[in-house]
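so i finally got all the pieces together for this one. its two components total, 770 residues if u count the protein bits. some of the lines might not be protein, just check the labels. i wanna see the whole assembly predicted at once instead of chain by chain like last time, that was a mess tbh
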Amino acid sequence: MRNFVFHNPTKIIFGNDSTNKVGKETKNYGKKVLLITGQGSIKKIGLYDKVVDLLKKEELEIYELSGVKPNPRVDLVREGIKIVRENKIDILLAVGGGSVIDTAKAIAAGLTYEGDVWDLFTKRIPIKPTIPIGVVLTLAATGSEMNGNAVISNMDTQEKLAISSPYLYPKFSILDPQNTVSVPLNHTLYGIVDILSHVFEQYFDRTEDAILQDRFAEAIMRTVIETAPKLAQNPEDLESRAIILWCGTNALNGIIGVGKEQDWASHAIEHAISALYDIPHGLGLAIVFPHWMKYVIDVIPNKFANFARNVWGIQGEDDFEVGLKGIDKLIDFYESLGIPTNLSRIGINNERLEEMAEKATKFGPIGNVKKLNKEDVYKILEMCL
Amino acid sequence: MRNFVFHNPTKIIFGNDSTNKVGKETKNYGKKVLLITGQGSIKKIGLYDKVVDLLKKEELEIYELSGVKPNPRVDLVREGIKIVRENKIDILLAVGGGSVIDTAKAIAAGLTYEGDVWDLFTKRIPIKPTIPIGVVLTLAATGSEMNGNAVISNMDTQEKLAISSPYLYPKFSILDPQNTVSVPLNHTLYGIVDILSHVFEQYFDRTEDAILQDRFAEAIMRTVIETAPKLAQNPEDLESRAIILWCGTNALNGIIGVGKEQDWASHAIEHAISALYDIPHGLGLAIVFPHWMKYVIDVIPNKFANFARNVWGIQGEDDFEVGLKGIDKLIDFYESLGIPTNLSRIGINNERLEEMAEKATKFGPIGNVKKLNKEDVYKILEMCL
């Protein structure tokens, strides 16, 4: 196990009707709140009106930034920074999924930087202390509700890049399973892929003795795999929604990743795909991950054997063979939920593979299990076709 | 799953040589530090000198409170409060195990209360904001390094009682596996029992749908059970020490307990035993828990079957029968490590059972799986003989 620092100060408020606490929690951080939202689905389910009412009840002054899209754009971040500066906003309140939260984080980060916010993503400039962020989560997937990371896309440069800072942890995140019930089934399932993929990035690495972290990771995988089919059958089941919601947060709040090397190549590859084709992040990950796994299994066959044995209950002596069966089980699992695991199935052919491979390795080789250069990524993308 | 709030802001600094950060971390909270220590074992291993040097390097003004005993006493807490008040201490630094940390927490709690600190334990008076606490942990067991709980004994009244408050979370805890290597084997093993017992208190309850929390709990149990025999064979193995250390923290930092009813009767029974006989807490728990389990298994046979199947790999159809085998496995495990699981084996006979049962239920029935009254506790204690 490597040395690590674990410091996750986000306050999680979990459970049905926990949304009711949004007014009082927000008020702890000031008078002027910028409400950041997506493309209107929260209005359809009545959540928008509910949140606005609760904020008004606490006499908060509400400003708004709406229209955040999946693969959120830096243009809207710039707009948000302008609103916050002009109106001296005290706190950002993100009501939505990962895209909305990440937009809030990027606004917060950009606010205390003098140049253009996109510099923070391309030049890896350290982020300074900034204004607080609150969250009302509407989708189980991102993990952004309990970490300091944000991923933003720049359509001008066709880049999708991440920032990370201790100053970007939300002060509070409200996780009310009721707010996730109306998410359409396909996006619920992409969220589930996202959750599993976050686990994979941390679980499949070369660290040998982070035993508890790996058992925790298996706990999340088993819980998700057991619960997802129930949810697919009955998308309105609040208990299943609650279980998946809590899995999503724990998949990326640090507890399964501390002391581990981790990998994260598959996310870089997926970001290159969705920067070019604007597909849902979870869908891209369902396609990339199984093929990445097959490309690197020879380096850590024992880890893949653990995955096969402890998550899927596969028996057998040979780590490599058992591990391969585990990967096949994962593919079967995704396909059984109707999630495609090949690019050709979503209309992407081999035309721009070169460009994607270039983009994914723009800052140098990616990943740790194998250091992947452009040629490696190209091969993995070919396998994905 | 029940609604919950999870907010654990303690900064964990984990790994070999992380002790070197104690000076800089402490300095973040002021100039005057009260160094709280136990009965001298940290002097033998050189940790005392090291910490003092590091504090002096940051020009901190050091005051001292030493001599904290296992089952820490309220008298020393009172002495600590006096020192802090007289010298306007800025931060408490606990260097030791659970007893030392809990003494620091009780001092912090008593400081902002006008009456005698013991009132906070007996009258359940809410604790007010107070001065910060830092920790250098020397024993894997308590979990106190990452929660807001403290347990203190009063020898005048022969009581052992707990307090809990959001204001008592340590600001930082340094978990350096090297600091745990010199702990004698028997106390290392009692620490391991303590860790498992914390898991049991949260795992064995009536909450049906906290699936992830239960898989997390099983992850800790499996990791401890796999690692403990290695550690017993080679007490100087730093990797095993590190794994157990991180298990201890996660067993009581909230992640396996949130959204669950939990039980905690066994701890109350053990506290009654060690208030009268001053035995190590872990030893008492190794005796109480298996017998409590047998007393309550009929209420939640499915939970005991999960324990048997997922932790011990026991197969079988009937939950009750499989569950009983799991309890027997636990007894075998403790005995294989040389830990006694009966009172008579440590020289305690039936003379004061009545008194213990009375003490354990002083504030009313205990536990949740079964609400245990005095007669129930007496029966469990008889089973423990």
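Chain A touches chain B at residues 1-18, 209, 211-212, 215-216, 218-220, 222-223, 226-227, 239, 242-243, 246-247, 250, 255, 258-259 (CB under 8 Å).
Chain A has a mean pLDDT of 96.
anyway lmk what u think
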